[in-house]
């Protein structure tokens, strides 16, 4: 276990993949009309270029995770997606409950 934690923290790839996933999932949630109404958000929806960036961001994080090796990279990428989904859902639930 001692070798596992420094690899994840010091490697940097999982951290950036996690941050990328949170941004992408949050931006995807903001594009949904029902979630916008629940959160009271009336801001602009990302343009075509913004959507292209949101599609490219997970692929860039996959390439970043692959620097750790093919097997570890896939596990990092999928694992950070799962954690980011939970964090994003909890964050949106907290924002909705405060309104």
Q: What would you say this structure looks like, in words?
A:
The protein is mainly α. It has a domain at 69-94. Helices cover 81% and strands 0% of the residues. The protein is built from 5 helices and no strands. The radius of gyration is 15 Å and the shape is flat. The mean pLDDT is 79.
C-alpha end-to-end distance: 41 Å
Order of helices and strands: HHHHH
Mean pLDDT value? 79
Unreliable segments of 5+ consecutive residues: none
Largest sheet: none
Tell me the strand percentage band. Answer: under 5%
Which terms would index this structure?
single chain, 99 residues, 0% strand
List the helices and strands and how they pair.
Layout: H1 4-11, H2 13-30, H3 33-39, H4 48-65, H5 70-98
Helix pairs in contact: 2-4, 2-5, 4-5
What is shown here, in short?
The protein is mainly α and 99 residues long. The protein has helices spanning 4-11, 13-30, 33-39, 48-65, 70-98.
């Amino acid at each position: 276990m001692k070798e596992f934690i420094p690899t994840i923290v010091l490697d940097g790839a999982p951290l950036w993949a996690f941050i990328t996933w949170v941004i992408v999932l949050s931006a995807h949630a903001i594009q949904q009309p029902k979630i916008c109404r629940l959160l009271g958000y009336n801001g602009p929806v990302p343009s075509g270029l913004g959507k292209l960036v949101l599609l490219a961001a997970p692929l860039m994080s996959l390439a970043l995770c692959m620097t750790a090796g093919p097997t570890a990279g896939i596990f990092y990428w999928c694992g950070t997606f799962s954690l980011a989904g939970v964090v994003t859902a909890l964050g949106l639930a907290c924002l909705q409950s405060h309104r």
